[in-house]
Amino acid sequence: MEEGTREVRYATQGRQALVTIDRPRARNALSASVVQELMEAISRAEADPEARVLVLTGAGEKVFCAGGDLGQMGEGGFLGMHEGRRAYAALLTRLQGCRKPTVARVNGHALAGGLGLVLACDLAVAAESAEFGTPEIDVGLFPMMMMALLQRHVGRKRALELVMTGDRLPSREALTLGLVNRVVPAAELDAAVGALAEKLAGKSQAVLALGKRAFFTAEDLPLPAALELLSSQLSLNVMAEDAAEGITAFLEKRPPKWNDR
């Protein structure tokens, strides 16, 4: 089943919610409406009982997302433009905080704000032909918001090199840096994404959501505070119905039957 809005398409494929930025002529750039529709698609996927994994991609075969739509930068006045930038920042937070697992299907180049979307997803699978980078510096801008995610993925020197030079990375180098989880030939992209999504779909949704929230909350805490937080989260985890089911299934040597509670 597939339904479309003007610039973002939502489809269910098995246990996946496939969310597609559909502006191929504009290199799937992030217009204000795309940002809003992506927010709506995330909420829809969370509420969709058929969807256990959200897969984010771009239309076509060349570009995942080329970043912000520079043609719209002068619209809405200064304060309106500022609110638009805040909306993109909110999208990154919303995507990272999605209660369901998220996978970026990187079908092509992921640049600037498009790279931010990849980094905000839990996992990412890229086609070999894809390139990654932050070219904003070449038009006199700096990748301010997505830089917060880049800093959390790579070391200081490499992060600064990327944002200060604007250089593009081939997908294999992006894999080495930890920007993506898998790199495959374009012809194998759907199969690789599908296999990863199915693996995630087979886990307890309740425990995945609890674990994701704990992971990101602990990420920026000092070590003693992180360990204190995570010990309490484990105590919550072991009280979950699915934890009892998982342990019982292990002892009985059978597959678990998750209730997602």
Automatic annotation (TrEMBL):
It holds the Pfam family ECH_1. Keywords: Lyase. SUPFAM superfamilies: ClpP/crotonase (SSF52096). It comes from the Bacteria. Belongs to the enoyl-CoA hydratase/isomerase family. This is Enoyl-CoA hydratase-related protein. It comes from Hyalangium rubrum. The lineage of its organism: Bacteria, Pseudomonadati, Myxococcota, Myxococcia, Myxococcales.
